[in-house]
Q: What sequence folds into this?
């Protein structure tokens, strides 16, 4: 092999990734930032408008601030619920019983489906007025709420879909639980510690790094949610499920205001960045790493 080939053979192998990154990630990122300062639209010529799009979002457009509030409410319901349920299932699946690998695979399946349109459509059929959920409630003599038509509970309904897709977080929790030395539990048991006390004094502190990671990743996902609100409720009723992702979609693909939609996307990016930094800043108070120096 010549010196030229030896020098550039690596670039040849990674060229598909480089081309994909430049074409589908870096270029759209830079282009959206530039477009956010224009009135770019598919239907007319593009003009530079400076910060007009950003000013309009915070001063003239009430739907944007409303969508931000709805998105934060959605995240506050979905993220804690998802992490709590994922940890609960992980604890159950950490028990050594026959066929445990089958059960672990079964509980992971919802996350393989992800936030697909088909899954959201299934959720809509389950929670509609005459859906299977209300049929079961009626069968046992309980009232049947209007899950998708009541503004007070519609956001909870779509956030429950996010909670149900707990598989990825559950796998990480399960891996963390399996790494905890059993000697710690045995010593606690000798000292008379109950299961609950051992869980809160041993288990939770030792898996806080995984809780920290899951909290960041799931918070980012929740703030970018779109599919469930679009398919299940289309932002209704009375815009009670009008997430910021739907606001971005409507402006960009319904109203063809691509520059305005780009400004929305960059504000969402800024919100996610600030939220992530705040979580990182708070981690020194509650995340504990199992090392000699006790680094945070």
A:
């Amino acid at each position: 092999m010549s010196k030229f080939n030896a020098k550039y053979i690596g670039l040849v192998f990674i060229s598909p990734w480089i081309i994909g990154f430049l074409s589908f990630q870096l270029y759209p990122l830079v282009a959206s930032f530039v477009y956010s300062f224009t009135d770019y639209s598919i239907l007319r010529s593009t003009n530079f408008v400076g910060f007009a799009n950003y000013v309009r979002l915070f001063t003239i457009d009430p739907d944007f601030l409303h969508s931000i509030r709805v998105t934060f409410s959605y995240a506050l319901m979905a993220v804690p619920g998802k992490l709590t349920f994922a940890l609960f299932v992980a604890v159950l699946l950490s028990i050594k019983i026959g066929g445990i690998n089958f059960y672990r695979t079964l509980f992971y399946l919802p996350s393989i489906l992800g936030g697909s349109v088909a899954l959201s459509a299934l959720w809509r059929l389950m929670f509609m007025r005459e859906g299977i959920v209300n049929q079961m409630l009626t069968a046992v003599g309980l009232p049947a709420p209007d899950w998708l038509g009541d503004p007070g509970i519609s956001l909870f309904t779509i956030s429950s879909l996010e909670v149900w897709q707990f598989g990825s977080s559950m796998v990480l929790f399960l891996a963390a639980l399996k790494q905890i030395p059993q000697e710690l539990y045995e010593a606690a048991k000798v000292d008379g510690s109950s299961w609950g006390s051992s869980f809160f004094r041993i288990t939770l502190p030792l898996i806080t790094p995984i809780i920290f990671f899951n909290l960041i990743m799931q918070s980012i996902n929740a703030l970018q949610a779109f599919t469930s609100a679009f398919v299940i409720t289309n932002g209704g009723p009375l815009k009670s499920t009008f997430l910021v992702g739907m606001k971005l979609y409507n402006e960009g693909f319904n109203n063809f205001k691509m520059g305005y939609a780009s400004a929305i996307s960059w504000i969402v990016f800024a919100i996610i960045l600030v939220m992530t930094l705040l979580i990182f800043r708070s981690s020194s108070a509650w995340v504990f790493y199992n090392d000699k120096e006790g680094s945070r």
User: Anything to note?
Assistant: The domain at 61-119+154-286 is CATH 1.10.3720.10 (MetI-like fold).
